[in-house]
Amino acid sequence: MAGRELILLALIVQLTLAQPPPHGHGIDLEGCGIHKGCMTIPPGCHKGQQGAEACDGIYVQEVMHNNPSNIHIQLFARNVAGWVAVGFNTVPHMSGTDVLACQADEEGRVVIKNLHNVNHTNAMDKNGEVAPYIYAAEGRLQNGSISCQFVRPLVTPREDYDLNLNMEHYIIFAWNYNQTAPATGPLMHMHQAPPIVSNATYTAHSVFLNNETGGEFDLSGCGKTKGCSRAPAGCSSAEECYYIFTQQVNAHNKDMVDIEVSGLVSGWVAVGYNSNYTMNGTDVVGCQMTPERERVAVKKLHNVNHTNLLDYPHNSSIHGLARVETHFANGRIYCRFSRIIKGIENDTFSRDLSQKSYIILAANINATARAWEPLGHMHSWAPTILPDTHTAMDVTFNYNATTGQPDLPLDTRQQAEESDVTSVDKLKPHIIDLSDCGKAKGCSRAPAGCQSSEECIYVFTQRPNESTMMVTYEISGMFAGWVALGVNFNYSMNGADVHGCQLTPDNQKVVVKKVHNINFTNVLDSESNVGMGLVNTGGSFVNNHIYCTFTRPIKPIGSDSYSRDLSQKATFILAGNVNGTAPQNKSLMYKHNGYEPLALPDQLTALDTTFNYNATAAEPASRRHVHPRFRKPTEVV
Predict the structure, then answer these.
(1) CB of 535 within 8 A of CB of 612?
(2) 413: how many CB neighbours lie within 10 A of its CB?
(3) Does residue 113 register a pLDDT over 90?
């Protein structure tokens, strides 16, 4: 473009831009999300009586109607007397960013600079020009705050420095409170607070507001146009479900899959993909609140020995993801993103989702972390794993799980007999289905003649899945402390591999705990994860009955030295305690009482489904050792 034409363009732009008023930052947010792209800091700061004047930072972009090859940009930072800048990059970090900055010089004038970031240092181009393709620039420092506006072409001749803004890119907002610099030099000083990075990629033509979505699920296409899963059973919306997950192939790019995840938590919610039924080795995408609770950051991670690590901590926290959008409201995290189905070349962490994987949902109630940090804390309750394996192209599944229920107040999990009843005592107990005992599942109940989990002192079922080598257990006991299932190679609790379901002291939660018995004392397998090795846990306490369910590997995984190999024959033992409650993070703590522990008469494996025992009457506890008290159904009169 000739010099005369550049001057003419600058004059036209200068005349068409609105002049800022003598007070405030002068940025008009009307049209944001309609024909402008806008970010406000913090999100939603413009919604009060003060409007945009209440915001600490603002970024506005709009392609010019009278010259669509140019973009008009406005920036504002409150209580900033150094510089404010916006950067454009194809990855969500500063290095390599195309930077547009408004910096105060030593005399208080604001100068607009177009720089490029190399290894986190802002530099001018090789000709030493500060802003060769910036037009109609205005900036001012007023009341200790910087505001500016300018125009630049979407595409400039400086291909080595300036990003083509027609391409999708992240928007990075940064500032320095007080470091000035000469008008002809670079910024010289780094930002003094972590930059605000958009959770989604945009182009110059994108219209958006606050980089957020409404967080609303459309579940009408579940099982038809998208695959879906939600928990617990019976929940139908994001407002009542602890988890919701959906997937569908992107309508415009068949190599991408669009994923939505939601969790009723204020820490993080995550979805993982693995070839086996465990978190270790999982390909994870996590959506986590930042410590300031101003936004939800999306992170691409991989799980090594049950610890989540960023795939590329020095490159991009969301490597391989695109179109990221998030929302947080009413204690619920929502995120939506797209990812490449078959993975990126040389990416050793991402699974090929065209191959079948287990899909795992996990969450943490309140653990926050910064956008560039890993999740940092383990899940607050056992993850939920979809029952079958799926590829990213599967849209025919629509699960409404009975498992994966976190330890929340019971009246949120149990259905009341009357709509206006919330008393725990009037809630219906969980009824264990015994119709397929001896066929699809192995069962045992006591005392003799009891027919349901409502009247039996003990009920125990196991349902194996040979293809996954996992087994799901249900346990019910007429106790108000704990009920437990122990597995041992002899008729004794000492040395048993124990799964305990214990009521908390406030009678509001049933916690599933994995423990091992040493000299008749139950010890947690892991103090930091009381349900270590268990998934799909859930529990309730109603009408003096404790109920719980959980799924575990049939064979121990990795270095697990406490769990028995349930593919080998062992003795299954049921025990309970009438009143021994304990906090969520403590072991069973109290010995069995009220009724003597009962052992199944035959040694079994977790793969057995043909047994269906109905026991003789359970007796009050009088001895420490365990006696076989069960009879086979054919022996019961």
Answers:
(1) no
(2) 21
(3) no
